Structure formats: C-alpha cells, structure tokens
Amino acid sequence: MIEVNRNGEVWIFAEQEAGRLGDVPLELMSKGRNLAETLGVPLAAVLAGQNVRDLPAKLIAHGADKVYVVQDARLATYQTLGYSHVMCELISQHKPQIVLFGATPIGRDLAPHVASAMKCGLTADCTDLQIGDHTPPGTTDLHKNLLLQIRPAFGGNIIATIVNYDRWPQMATVREGVMPMTEPQPQRKGAVVDCRLNLNGLTLPLEILQSERRQKKVNLKAARVIVAGGAGVGSRDSFKLLWDLANCLGAAVGGSRAAVDLGYIDHDHQVGQTGTTVRPALYIAVGISGAVQHRAGMQESAKIMAINTDKDAPIFGVAHYGIVGDFRQVLPKLVKAIRAGAGIKA
How far apart are CA 264 and CA 209, in angstroms? Predict the structure, then answer.
C-alpha cells in the first residue's frame, strides 16, 4: 500500500498485444480524461512491451497527458509476473491515485495481482466511474473526491457503488464497451517518459514458444443494426429466422446469455452484462425477456424493437417499439416486406 496522494495522477493500463492497442484502453482514455479533469490532475497511460514506440502518439491523441513506456524483450508477450512487476514498480515510484484496467482476460489477470501486491482495493467489472465524496458509516470523517466505482451486484439485481478511501491507489477494472470511445485529436501534445526499471532479477516462469489468436466471429460493437435472440427463440434451428432478417438488413446477429448457455448461438455473439455492450442505431430483441443483465448491455441503443409473446416482459420497458406476437409469424412478414422494398429507419 502507498500513502494517499490527493494530487496523484489518473492512470490507464494501456493493454497491447503484438504491438497493437485494443479498443479497451482507448475507451478508458475518454473516462480517464473526464476523471482527471474533475480532479485537476494529469491523465497518464502505462505502456509495457517490446517495440511499442509507435503507440504513445495514439494514446496521447485519445487524451493522455503523459505515457510511461517500459520496453524489454521479456515483456514482448504478456506474463503475469513481468507485467505485475512493472506496474508495482511504477506505482511505488509515481504514486497515482487511480489506476484503471480493462476487464479483458489480461486485465482480469493483472489487476488482482497488482492490487494484492500493493495491498489496496480493487473493484471488478465496473460499468461506470464517477468522482464524489463519502463519509464512512459511524464516523463524521468526510473524504472528498473519491473514485465512485459503480457495478451491478447480486446477479445484476442492484447497482453497487464501492469506494476505497484509505488504501490507495484506487483500482478498478472496467467492462469492454461501456465507455464510448472518443474521436482522436492528432494535434494533442503529451510527454513520453522512458522508464528504466531494473528488471535484471526478473525471471519469468514460462517460455512462450508459439502464440495463436482467434479473432471474434462478429464485431457487435461496430454493428449499426443488431438482431438478437433469447431463450424464447426455442432452438438453434429457429435462430435461422433471425439470420434471415439480419441478412436482409445487413445486420449482425446477437444473443442473450440464456440463448448462449442453451447452445442456440456462439458466445462471441453474446450481448449483456457478461457479454458485449452495444449501442447500435437499431436493436431488434426477439424472444428476449429483458433481464437486467441483458438490458445493461443494450439499453443505450438509439432505437429498440422488441418482439415477444409476453406483453408484460421487462424488455418492453426499454423498447421504443413493441410487437406482442410469435416471432415465427412476425419475422417472415418483416423479411417479406423488406425484400419487397420496405425500409426500416435506424
């Protein structure tokens, strides 16, 4: 644990693989920028790896005032021991007040190790972050300008706000897609700090002989229109009707967790709290009841159309348009109308 530094920077762990930044750290830059401006402190990114010299400019364009760069051959491929050593050394030296990670496989592995080593708290899978004040129960001590770490709890039935007022840095992982990525500003200026850490005693437990990466089958975040199905679709074969509608609209196909768990559609297509958060121009929910976990991942869509046989289904509470009926009758009629020249404005 480091001492509380009220003037410490806001940090984003700039996750990269094979010299390429993913979307998640760039999404976090926009929220980090907002937090840093509220606190009146700089926003910094931490970039570790090998041959990453071209990446700081992109981070600065997305909002970083400063980029701490650590390059070493042992950091070429992610391993927990090497990256946690780097993060802990930098945190001890520079004493940031907030450190944010993406809730990716790497972020979910790295952040707990760093939090444990620094003896500080960590809130996982946040869906929002704000700055606010807090008075611990049973005291009159007012702690100002804390990081309010907001996430669903108890299966998504409540929204919890978690604070860490005495063990810093304040750390959180943030779910992919919940923070909108802002447009880069190539004219922004920032500092690139080359960090010379002593890694001579660092011995990694694994030797990476070969690395293979499988691309997702669908990019739901980039889709302008999504046709998504739930448990109410009934079977993998019945999902063919959703694919037919999606093909007519040039849309992507998504699914609720229930549909994925039942094997109706692959996990890459999952929308919701444990899947992908999406904001398409049009979201068509077919046979989806609208549990809070699913709504958390799609309720910011510009327009939502729901098709369900249950007129009291929660999905109708967030839908702009609702059709109470059997999708087996509704979808073929939509497909026929669209192929005949009718349009859906999204």
Answer: 36
Every domain of the chain and the residues it spans: 10-194, 220-339
Q: Which residue has the higher pLDDT, 326 or 343?
A: 326
- How far, rounded to the nearest angstrom, does the alpha carbon of residue 241 sit from its chain's CA centroid? 30
d(Cα 309, Cα 238) in Å, to the nearest integer?
15
CATH number attached to the domain at 220-339: 3.40.50.1220
Domains 10-194 and 220-339 share a fold: yes
CATH superfamily of 10-194: HUPs (3.40.50.620)
Separation between Cα atoms, residue 255 and residue 264, nearest integer Å:
8
As a whole number of angstroms, the distance between CA 270 and CA 231 comes to: 12
pLDDT digits (tens, 9 = 90+) for 152-196: 776 666 788 999 988 889 999 998 888 888 899 999 999 999 998
Torsion of CA 106, 77, 100, 2, to 10 degrees: 110
